[in-house]
């Protein structure tokens, strides 16, 4: 195990040094231990880190190498780098352990402390590791699959590293795609590639070195510090306080860690993954998301006196070497007393720690913290039980030697009894505290589950009623329904807090029925998660639908109001036009002009009628409400009826005025006709000039076939026939004796008035010809 960790550190530290050399334009090293022996490459590294020129010895003897290394060590001491028990001969001789220690101190100073010194000063903290862990936990708190409590085991599955990057740069990749990856090595490879390509961080670690049961802490710290250097560095006091409350890892060796972890009865880990919640891809930030419930299932026994710490033959697997070494040497009273005092000192501290634990809280999150704190305490007891057993064995061996006086033997026996009694009391008390924590925590968690189940039932009924209620039937009702939906969204956001509290559930089961109990809980959580996801999905879908309908309805209402107002204005205008009883010729001409303008407006407004009908169809197809459909169809029918009435009134008024003109002016002279032609030409020029001022220049004329509507074609045929009849009558008038009288007398005033009336009749009667 030690050799594996040394190999990982060697590889990682070599990559770090080469990354620095790439920045300084120096040649890379290949072997960390041999390439640093002459001190020259070590000075190259320090030149780049300090920015100072460091001259090197020119020779290649051992003396020159020692001088180079001594110079490097003096530079490190000047920069306050810790160099405990590291000398120049250690580096020159290629001592692996001390060379790695030297490079780690360099990394710790320039990579870790220098990067974090500003934020440490701002927070008034001196522990860089605690600040870094606080930053990681604060960044990943919204990722339910991630719970970082250290810089070793928490990073093995690759989720923590991806979550850390994604929390600050969610634009770089999709989190769900990473979660779905089966292999921890794949997830780690993904994170390292993203960090290199997108953040410019060298790939200092290999996935296979991290995807182990117990990764190298120094290598992880070095890499996470590199991420800290390029990502936002906000750390709150609350995050630091949260880290301070985490259970402290016991000081055991790597081998002891796994053996003790395997030995303890509450080490089983169970993960329950629920179906992913609904997330809209169009939204950069979805309003809701479902949660994966992760349970740490701790197996407890029904009898609190049953303990993972046996009262007899106390010997931890990790302490065998220590115990056996003591047995091999001759046992003396002094060595026994020394070992006893050390164990009793620790035992007193452990008793005080248990006594100082707070009363069990009534808040589920606080109880979780208390549970995990006590878990760390139990781990510490387990790691020390071997030492207690060793002292008891030493005492027994000392008595068996027969070298003690009766008084000394009695004293040793009493000491052993006292030690065993205090250990047993501590063991029972700690197990009882663990059992009480389990019971309270399960009760609180079950209460939360029941509250969530009740809320889901109530909300499902609420959404069912909202689904059954028709949308509308008018715009104000729709706005009210939108407001109701906003209230539902706010309730979901508040309930999210309760859902969050159910993450990382602690499940207490009996050893005999553990699988059945966890399976039942797994099924319960899956059902609750599916129901929660369905409500979130329905809420999102309905919100999109409501927004779409509201927009279409508002557009239709605006067009409807504008069209209704326009119709009312035109209806009033038609009613105000005089069609009979004209006082003079000017009043008659004015009425004819007004009718002509109204007819032109009507032709232009026909597109608005079509647009209104199109908006109505779009709204009804989305709304699907029969009562609203009937109401809107009634509106459109009313508009169509008013439109037809307006057209009929215009035609009727035109006919009445035309009849009045024909009655009062039966004939026209040739001169009047000529002047009328001139006047028509002038009016056409004015209209053309006015159109050029208001409209953009027309495009080049193209020869194309004009497709004429059948209704317009019929009107055109009628107008042409009437125009031809009028021209025939006008030709007859030009040949009449009356025209000769006008020409002979030279008085054309009456003839001009008749021609003006004739021109107006042409425009009024043949608007289709004028448009063409």
From TrEMBL:
It holds the Pfam family CH. One of its GO terms (molecular function) is actin binding. It comes from Oryctolagus cuniculus (Rabbit). SMART domains: CH (SM00033), SPEC (SM00150). CDD domains: CH_DMD_rpt1, CH_DMD_rpt2, SPEC. This is Calponin-homology (CH) domain-containing protein. One of its GO terms (cellular component) is cytoplasm. The keyword Coiled coil applies. Residues 7-111, 126-232 form the Calponin-homology (CH) domain. Keywords: Actin-binding, Coiled coil, Repeat. Residues 449-498 form a coiled coil.
């Amino acid at each position: 195990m030690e050799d594996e960790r040394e190999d990982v550190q060697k590889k990682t530290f070599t990559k770090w040094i080469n990354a620095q050399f790439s920045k300084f334009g120096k040649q890379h090293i290949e072997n960390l231990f041999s390439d640093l022996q002459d001190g020259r490459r070590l000075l190259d590294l320090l030149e780049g880190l300090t920015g100072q020129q460091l001259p090197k010895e020119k020779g290649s003897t051992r003396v020159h190498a020692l001088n180079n290394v001594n110079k490097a060590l003096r530079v490190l001491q000047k920069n306050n780098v810790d160099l405990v028990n590291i000398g120049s001969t250690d580096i020159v001789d290629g001592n692996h352990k001390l060379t790695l220690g030297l490079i780690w101190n360099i990394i710790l100073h320039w990579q870790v402390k220098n990067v974090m010194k500003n934020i440490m000063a701002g927070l008034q903290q001196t522990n860089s590791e605690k600040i870094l862990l606080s930053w990681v936990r604060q960044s990943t708190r919204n990722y339910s699959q991630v719970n970082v409590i250290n810089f070793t085991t928490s990073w093995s599955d690759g989720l923590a590293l991806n979550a850390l990057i994604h929390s600050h740069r969610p634009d770089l990749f999709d989190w769900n795609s990473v979660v779905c990856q089966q292999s921890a090595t794949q997830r780690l490879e993904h994170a390292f590639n993203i960090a290199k390509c997108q953040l410019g961080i060298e790939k200092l670690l290999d996935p296979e070195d991290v995807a182990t049961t117990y990764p190298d802490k120094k290598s992880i710290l070095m890499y996470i510090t590199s991420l800290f250097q390029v990502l936002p560095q906000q750390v709150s006091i609350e995050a630091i306080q949260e880290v301070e409350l985490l259970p402290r890892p016991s000081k055991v060796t790597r081998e002891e860690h796994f053996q003790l972890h395997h030995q303890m009865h509450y080490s089983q880990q169970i993960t329950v993954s629920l179906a992913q919640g609904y997330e809209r891809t169009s939204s950069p930030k979805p309003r809701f998301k479902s949660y994966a419930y992760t349970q740490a299932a701790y197996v407890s026994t029904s009898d609190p006196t049953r303990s993972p710490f046996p009262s007899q033959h106390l010997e931890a697997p990790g302490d065998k070497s220590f115990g056996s070494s003591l047995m091999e040497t001759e046992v003396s009273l002094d060595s026994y007393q020394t070992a006893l005092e050390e164990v009793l000192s620790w035992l007193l501290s452990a008793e005080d720690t248990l006594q100082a634990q707070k009363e069990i809280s009534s808040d589920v999150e606080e109880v979780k913290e208390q549970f995990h704190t006590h878990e760390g305490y139990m781990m510490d007891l387990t790691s020390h039980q071997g030492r207690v057993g060793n002292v008891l064995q030493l005492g027994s061996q000392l008595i068996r030697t027969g070298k003690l006086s009766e008084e000394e033997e009695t004293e040793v026996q009493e000491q052993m009894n006292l030690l065993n009694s205090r250990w047993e009391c501590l063991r029972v008390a700690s197990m009882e505290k663990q059992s009480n924590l389990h019971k309270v925590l399960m009760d609180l968690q079950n209460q939360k589950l029941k509250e969530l189940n009740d809320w889901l039932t109530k909300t499902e009924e609420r959404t069912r009623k909202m689904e059954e209620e028709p949308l509308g039937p008018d715009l104000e009702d729709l706005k009210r329904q939108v407001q109701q939906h906003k209230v539902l969204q706010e309730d979901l956001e508040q309930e999210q807090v309760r859902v969050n509290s159910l993450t990382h559930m602690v499940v207490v089961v009996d050893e005999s029925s553990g699988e059945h109990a966890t399976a039942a809980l797994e099924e319960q959580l899956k059902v609750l998660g599916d129901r929660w996801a369905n409500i979130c999905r329905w809420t999102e879908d309905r919100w999109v639908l409501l927004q779409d309908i509201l927009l279409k309805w508002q557009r239709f209402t605006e067009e409807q109001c504008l069209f209704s107002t326009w119709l009312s204005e035109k209806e009033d205008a038609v009613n105000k036009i005089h069609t009979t009883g004209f006082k003079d010729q000017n009043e008659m001409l004015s009425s004819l002009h007004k009718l002509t303008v109204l007819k032109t407006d009507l032709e232009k407004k026909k597109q608005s009628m079509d647009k209104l009908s199109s908006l109505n169809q779009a709204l009804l197809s989305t709304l699907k409400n029969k009562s609203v459909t009937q109401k809107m169809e009634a509106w459109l029918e009313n508009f169509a009826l008013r439109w037809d009435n307006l057209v009929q009134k215009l035609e009727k008024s035109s006919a009445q005025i035309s009849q009045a003109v024909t009655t009062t002016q039966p004939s026209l002279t040739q001169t009047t006709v000529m002047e009328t032609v001139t006047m028509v030409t002038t009016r056409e020029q004015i209209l053309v000039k006015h159109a050029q001022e208001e409209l953009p220049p027309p495009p080049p004329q193209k020869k194309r076939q004009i497709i004429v509507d059948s209704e317009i074609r019929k009107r055109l045929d009628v107008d042409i026939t009437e125009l031809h009849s009028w021209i025939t009558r006008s030709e007859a008038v030009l040949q009449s004796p009356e025209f000769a009288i006008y020409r002979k007398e030279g008085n054309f005033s009456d003839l001009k008035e008749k021609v003006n009336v004739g021109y107006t009749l042409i425009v009024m009667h043949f608007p289709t010809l004028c448009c063409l």
